[in-house]
Amino acid sequence: MFDSPADLFHVLAGHRVELIIAMIGTGPLTIRELSRRVNRDVKGVHRDVHTLLDVHILERLESGFSLSYDAVRIDVLLT
Q1: Is the pTM of this model over 0.90?
Q2: Above 90 in pLDDT, residue 1?
């Protein structure tokens, strides 16, 4: 999915991990609801949601955006 660890870290930087954590175990959420949950502006959350959509971490549904996992584990080996 990612060409290098740097690509992974770029996608999962900062607030995007916070969004993923906020979505674990929930149903679909709108960008506005997700913004409220993480206490961030809608524009920034919109940008981050679309970044996560582009790499297939999130899924777009009619009722909002969804994380299709009950848990997320990230293993990275740097050598």
Answers
A1: no
A2: no
